[in-house]
Design brief:
The complex is a heterodimer of chains A (210) and B (197).
Chain A: H1 31-44, H2 48-70, H3 73-90, H4 100-123, H5 144-156, H6 160-171, H7 176-183, H8 187-209
Helix pairs in contact in A: 1-2, 2-3, 2-4, 3-4, 4-7, 6-7, 6-8, 7-8
Chain B: H1 17-25, H2 34-38, H3 40-52, H4 54-61, H5 68-79, E1 87-92, E2 95-100, H6 101-113, E3 118-125, E4 130-132, E5 135-137, E6 148-157, H7 163-182, E7 185-196
Parallel strand pairs in B: 6-7
Antiparallel strand pairs in B: 1-2, 3-6, 4-5
Helix pairs in contact in B: 1-3, 6-7
The chains are: A mainly alpha (210), B alpha+beta (197).
Amino acid sequence: MTSAGAAPDGGTDPDDGIVPDDGVPDDGVGREARIDRWLVGKARDGDLGAYEELIRRHRDRIYRIALRITGDPADADDVTQEVVIQLWTALSGFVGSSAFTTWLYRVVVNRSLDHQRRTRRLTGDEPGDDDLLPVAAPERSVLAAAELRAGLEAIARLPESQRVPFVLCQIEGLGYAQAAAITKVSEATVRGRLARARATLLAEMRSWSA
Amino acid sequence: MTGPALPDTRLPCGRSTGPLLEQVAEGRAGELDAHQRTCPHCRAALAEFDRLWAPVRAVAADRPQAPPSVVEAALLRVRGASAGPEYGRIDSPLGHTRVAARVVVALARHLAAQVPGVEVALGGLVTDGHQDAGEVVPDVEAGVTGGSTAVQITLAAAYGQDLQALGERIRAVVARGVREVTGLEPVDVTVHVDDVW
């Protein structure tokens, strides 16, 4: 298989792995990637309308990746804004050797990690042993919201090296190859880190129910 | 992170727990192989992992959208000073309605993108606007009771079709839509087919 395939919004584009935010799956011949390339070309020429369309197509995924990596909606807002502002000038550095989405998601991942490190440095909010106890064990809660929060918190506490491939593959449904390209490691490394992330999370879930 | 990762242990039946966790994580907990169908150890482990995995499934199922205000605030900064406020103006006896040029652009883009044969479309305003009571009205203003606008659509079209006919269809859809939604009169809809694939 090429994808962790857990994202509920369907499959991935065999061309570059994207599923646009409007939920319309790629037609299998890279139509979405072609549209991205067309828009990127125009945006690089200074067409602000093209840039806005490009952002519209990807804004929700930018936000979701930021949210899952930082684990905090306010941080995800900040990262989304930073990315949208930064990308306008950074597009000139996009040489097109990879799919636009691969480049974009790399920017989002790096921004999210930087933002989280910066926030933790400022607040001294490094996760300690006390932080590892959830407010409520998810399996005892009948509230979906509590379960969701527990999941987000657990993911946010994963080590960076495990969290990033977990978010990209398990949560966003990207393929191993694209996650490897985004994180600049081998596909085997992505698979290994994903497996470790799953095991780490399961151990944490188990400790909650103990 | 709390505790060590769950070790990849062996069940009494000899099966390793690692692949079982992968099976659950990939949403295949119910797809039992021949061994698993009759093995109580595997079935118990799968059920337990599946139960514990619920919070992760909840996260994956949650598809939050970027708050529009967050994205719009960032785009506003990108637009910066280059985005002068342009408005179309529709007068009425009790006052007037101003429609931002951006609204017309966004509407035209949306309408054009819906036309079969259009792969992707961008909207723009014809830039020779003129001043009117301190406002820049897109293109021309016609009469005292209404405003007019000229719109340009730049698009990539699907290959193998009559592009002139496509242009006419786009013109009709955009003109009607802009007129109905904004009250502005589209006096000119220019269709620029930029690419075909």
